[in-house]
Amino acid sequence: MFGSSPKKAADAYSKISLETGIVGADPHRLILMLFDGAVVAIGNASRQIDEGNVAEKGRSISHAISIIERGLQASLNKKVGGDLAHNLDALYGYMAKELLRANITNDLGKLAEVKRLLLELKDAWQQIAPGKQNQSELATTPPDLVPPRDNLAPRRSRSFSA
């Protein structure tokens, strides 16, 4: 009707939705989005191996590697993060190599291993969400001791510069 397939329209909507989510996300949420993107790309690659779609499988695995190397690994601050940042750096390097091997050999086991590692890291990252500790403290604080919220008070901006 409009000269575009429903799939193209859905893809465009997804892209706009993702871009909107990125613009409004705090740095913690952006890392979660990177984990999600890598997991989805690996899931797509697994399905594409099953379907025998070699070209798409290669693109999906390359996308997952890119997210890991240019997103997760590049976001590490090894000066501040100490041993944890160095260990994560090594783990992300391992994941990228395993994905490359999976791409060459069509190894679903390697894809599953990297996906499992990413999901474990994502879960750990979710556990340290900013404000999560404060919310649990408020949940255990008697209601008469919880400070009232001032809805007219200025709120912190979530914008940041590059």
Overview of the structural elements:
The chain has 6 helices and no strands. By secondary structure, the chain is mainly alpha-helical. It has a domain at 27-127: Up-down Bundle (Four Helix Bundle (Hemerythrin (Met), subunit A)), CATH 1.20.120. Helix 2 runs antiparallel to helix 3 (54-73), helix 3 (54-73) runs antiparallel to helix 4 and helix 4 runs antiparallel to helix 5 (108-127). The longest helix is centred in the middle third of the chain and has 28 residues, at 78-105. The protein is globular, with a radius of gyration of 20 Å. Residues 13-22 and 157-162 have low confidence and may be disordered.
Describe this structure in a few short sentences:
This protein is mainly alpha-helical and 162 residues long.
Write the layout of secondary structure elements.
Layout: H1 6-24, H2 27-51, H3 54-73, H4 78-105, H5 108-127, H6 132-140
Can you give keywords for this protein?
162 residues, globular, Four Helix Bundle (Hemerythrin (Met), subunit A), 6 helices, mainly alpha
Distance between the termini: 41 Å
Compute the number of strand runs.
Answer: 0
Mind telling me which CATH architecture of the domain at 27-127 this is? Up-down Bundle
Q: Tell me about the largest β-sheet.
A: none
Radius of gyration: 20 Å
Task: Please trace the helix and strand order, writing H or E for each element.
Answer: HHHHHH
- Estimate what percentage of residues fall within beta strands: under 5%
- Low-pLDDT runs of 5+ residues are 13-22, 157-162
- Which term fits the overall shape? globular
Superfamily (CATH H level) name of the domain at 27-127? Flagellar protein FliS
CATH fold type of the domain at 27-127: Four Helix Bundle (Hemerythrin (Met), subunit A)
Number of helical segments?
6
Q: Give the CATH level 1 class of the domain at 27-127.
A: Mainly Alpha
Specify the structural class: mainly alpha
Q: How confident overall, as mean pLDDT?
A: 79
Helix share, percent = over 70%
